[in-house]
């Protein structure tokens, strides 16, 4: 499946609607927030910042997109895996906040790509995450980012992405 990239019109539409409305327009239903797979929590809030733990491309059926970019997976497949990871991270935010409109800014994204040693297109893969975040949150979704290659990732997943967001007020447990 070829990656679809957001247009300026899509980004402007996100600025005119709440993130929840924008998800509906995009035909995206957020899943239940994925549970942590080890001894950690999905996110920690300190002040008005939430630090989200790394999540991967878990599908609705519980399976994950796995494999190395540049060997097992194409850039387009990696892009879609990163997009799926954005959906999972938004599900965590929704569970923590109750309303995605409480996100005032996506501050920073760290995208880790399970890469073949010769693969150097990590930014193109992590664009799948960044593009969807900007489509949903508009200007407040524009963020600082790192996209790096890793020799391996847990369970062989294609990508793992963590995120820092600024929110208004305290979260509810």
What does the secondary structure layout of this molecule look like, with pairings?
Blueprint lengths: L7 H9 L2 H7 L17 E4 L2 E7 L19 H23 L5 E12 L7 H16 L6 E7 L8 E9 L6
Parallel strand pairs: 3-4
Antiparallel strand pairs: 1-2, 2-5, 3-5
Helix pairs in contact: 1-4, 3-4
Residue share in helix: 25-40%
- Strands in their spatial order, largest beta sheet: 1-2-5-3-4
- Categorize the overall geometry: globular
For CATH, the homologous superfamily is named as RutC-like
- What is the average per-residue confidence, as pLDDT, rounded to a whole number? 91
Number of strands: 5
Reported CATH architecture? 2-Layer Sandwich
What is the H-and-E element order?
HHEEHEHEE
Briefly, what CATH class?
A: Alpha Beta
How many helical stretches?
A: 4
Give the distance, in angstroms, between the N- and C-terminal Cα atoms: 39 Å
Structural class: alpha+beta
Count of domains:
1
- Sketch the major β-sheet: 5 strands, mixed
Q: Nearest-angstrom radius of gyration?
A: 15 Å
Strand content: 15-25%
CATH topology: 60s Ribosomal Protein L30, Chain: A
Catalogue the unreliable spans: 1-5, 7-13
Describe the protein's architecture and organization.
- The chain has a single domain, classed as 2-Layer Sandwich (60s Ribosomal Protein L30, Chain: A).
- It has 4 helices and 5 strands; from the N terminus they run ααββαβαββ.
- The protein has helices at 8-16, 19-25, 75-97, 122-137, and strands at residues 43-46, 49-55, 103-114, 144-150, 159-167.
- Helix 4 (122-137) links the parallel strand 3 (103-114) and strand 4 (144-150).
- Helix 3 (75-97) packs parallel to helix 4.
- The protein is globular and about 45 Å long.
- The termini are far apart.
